[in-house]
Write a structure and sequence with these properties.
Two copies of one chain form a homodimer.
Chain A (H helix, E strand, L loop, with lengths): L2 H15 L4 H17 L1 H17 L4 H7 L3 H16 L7 E8 L2 E9 L2 E6 L3 H13 L3 E5 L5 H17 L7 E4 L2 H8 L7 E5 L2 H9 L13 E5 L5 H13 L8 E7 L3 H14 L3 E4 L1 H6 L3 E2 L2 H4 L7 E7 L2 H11 L4 E5 L3 H10 L4 E6 L16 E3 L7 E3 L5 E12 L15 E3 L6
Parallel strand pairs in A: 3-4, 3-6, 4-5, 7-8, 7-12, 8-11, 9-10, 9-11, 12-13
Antiparallel strand pairs in A: 1-2, 1-17, 2-16, 14-15
Chain lengths: ~425, ~425
């Protein structure tokens, strides 16, 4: 099958998928979990072949770790499927109701987006997660995984496709792409694919964003800031700075830069330095920071770098306004926190820092779908349309307007004897 | 100023605009209406110069009509500004609240998107409408109007900019681009411009959509369908078909194709033909239609054409399933209606036709922001992310997550003595 033909098949199935009941979709998710468990052995075997080939190709150790799909990982994705079943179906929710006139009722109702393109690197568990999120939300999915995982991915898609078909889901909703050329091709399919979700390194996501007209849900950088205001509780500020940087460094919501108000810098910097260094963090400071504490000098490049490592850059600023400007210049719109006891300053920070997640007196590390209670995380978005910050299942739906009448024509609402619209808003679920 | 510098200025002002109060923004809208009224004479003079140049350049009559900005049009846009003041501010609305733990509260709050690029053709009133919608929603705007309206547009932007500044709105939120090269340049500014709204012909919108990575809110085609089911009330079906086609033909929500169930075609087609021809509509039919009534033969091209004219193509179909497939193949996802007395068929149609507006027993012409009671229409979107169908002010906002704590760290929620998240959902407005 050509990529175009696969995309058309996905599109056609997406239409049928939109009419599946919650019960049918959940039954399919259950069947998929059963099938993955019963195929555990062949899955591990396929993955071992992928791993052996990857080792022969001298793949780096962290990549090998991500590629590994063992019994534990299989059980983990199955538990994920079972908790997904418990979540509310994001489709079919009435967002608003307006009576336009007696017997002419307008409903805004959530529905699947259509066809989601997902491009991910080596982790086979990502394939199961994202395809199950698509199924729950009624979307068809075209997947492109890392070529290192080719055998594992092919088997996974066969199992998922077969199991969902057995549960009555129309065939064709999940399509696997296999070559790098396939990716370039789907990036051009803006007539068929409605949304692309890339998962992987910053460079990888940035490449996808720069090379398609299709909407992309994701984030390239996570350059997060903590600003310690002059009116901060300094013990709290130390704890938040340390947690934001050190609690787990390899993730997008870890802080990379600490901004410190000049007024409290002489007192605060030595304290935070001690706490950070006790956790093994390296400090890179602006000239003013380096005068107050011993630190390596930071360059302009540091302010724009997501270290994903035990390194924190520190800059002394004149106050709130400079902190906001700095974050708006260097931040990536992911997560930025202020530590202050002054609610007015907190409000100004939260309203004018252009970020998906604006935090007051807590760690940037809270920025996450699980901690937010979203139930399932589709991804983290630094987009400014559709969905922003941690995105749950609601990021995979859009809405349609459903208007139910009894033969009304617009001609009746124009001219000298025109009927007038009532435009009454109530809570009422769409009956269809 | 270079386009890049203008875009940076717009971006910087957008940050300040996000912190403006509803009162300040509404006061500015009021001041703009006053200024437009008091500059009526110079505006008309500038427009007359544009008109004279356009006539000398032999611009077509419909374009001249759209270019005209006389005292009546000025009063109309001022009334529009005054009704915009009455609308609720779309920003600062709390969409959801979650208590993550005692004293750790998460709010999802609407906020402006940032910088909107608007590209429109000759109508100067569009400039006032869209820039005022952007101001109300707290967005900066970069505008590119038709070159025929250069003098009118320049004066309008000066007046709007000056009046809003007098009302205390930071300068720089409205920027005018003047050359065709400027358009090509802003289409590349995906780092600065967050959303593009093109207004104009199908070809024009399609060109914009195909030539930018920035999200586009709009619609190229409006190929709308009416399907008359075997179980339709045929009097109702005639009235809806006639209204959908003939009530106003030059608009995107007018029907272009009528699908008729084979079972009722022999009875229905002669009746609808009579009613359509009485209104001056020309019919182009599929072979089966042409056997039942006298009509010009339709080609495949007809099914994919937005006539915007008194022409309707008619196709006989085997039933609901074929109608749905046909619409999903040829429709543009704008507005599609079914006429039937059978609620199950209506539900199947509304849930599986992939369209922004799915109608049951009413005219496609209802698909419109005013009729929907949106208050103001930003545009009609055939996108499948962010906003769909008629889009009101809410299409110009996104949300940010605001998390308010008292020094919480993620470390407290991990390890053997981990606190657990409460994830309680309530209705509570964000205090900041």
């Amino acid at each position: 099958m050509t990529i175009q033909a696969m995309a058309r098949a996905a599109k056609q199935t997406s239409i049928l998928l939109a009419a599946q009941t919650t019960r049918a979709k959940d039954a399919a998710l259950k069947r998929i979990a059963e099938a993955l468990r019963s195929h555990k052995q062949v899955l591990v075997q396929a993955n071992q072949k992928d791993l052996a080939a990857a080792e022969a190709n001298q793949l780096a150790a962290p990549l090998l770790k991500r590629l590994k799909f063992d019994a534990g990982k299989i059980e983990e994705v199955c538990l994920g499927l079972e908790s997904l079943i418990q979540l509310r179906d994001p489709t079919g929710q009435t967002l608003s109701f307006t009576e336009l006139d007696q017997g002419l009722e307008l409903y805004k109702v959530t529905c699947p987006i259509g066809v989601i393109g997902v491009i991910f690197e080596s982790r086979p568990d990502a394939l199961v997660q994202i395809s199950s999120l698509c199924l729950k939300s009624g979307n068809a999915v075209m997947l492109k995984g890392g070529s290192e995982a080719a055998l594992t991915n092919r088997l996974l898609v066969d199992i998922i496709s077969q199991a969902s078909q057995e549960a009555g889901i129309p065939v064709g909703w999940i399509q696997l792409l296999e070559t790098r050329e396939d990716v370039a091709e789907i990036l051009n399919l803006d007539d068929t694919i409605d949304l692309i979700i890339p998962r992987g390194s910053n460079e990888f996501v940035k490449y996808i964003m720069d090379n398609t007209n299709i909407a992309v849900l994701g984030h390239a950088d996570g350059i997060c800031h903590v600003f310690v205001d002059a009116e901060a509780d300094l013990d709290m500020a130390v704890a938040i700075a340390v947690d934001s940087k050190c609690q787990y460094v390899a993730v997008c919501n870890a802080a990379e830069t600490l901004l410190v108000d000049r007024a409290i810098a002489p007192e605060f910097l030595p304290r935070v330095k001690g706490a950070l260094e006790a956790r093994g963090a390296e400090i890179r400071g602006c000239p003013e920071t380096c005068k107050l504490i011993a630190a390596a000098p930071a360059t302009d490049r540091d302010w724009a770098t997501e270290y994903l490592d035990m390194i924190l850059s520190i800059k002394v600023v004149a106050g709130l306004a400079e902190a906001i400007d700095f974050i708006n210049q260097y931040g990536s719109g992911h997560t930025d926190a202020i530590v202050t006891q002054n609610p007015d300053k907190a409000a100004q920070f939260m309203n004018t820092v252009d970020t998906g997640n604006a935090f007051w007196n807590c760690s940037t590390r809270f920025s996450d779908g699980f901690r937010y209670g979203l139930g399932a995380e589709v991804g983290v978005s630094t987009n400014k349309i559709h969905a922003r910050g941690p995105v749950g299942l609601e990021g995979l739906v859009i809405y349609k307007w459903k208007l139910i009448g009894h033969g009304q024509t617009v001609a009746q609402y124009s001219g000298p004897e025109a009927r007038t619209f009532t435009h009454k808003h109530n809570h009422k679920d769409c009956p269809l």
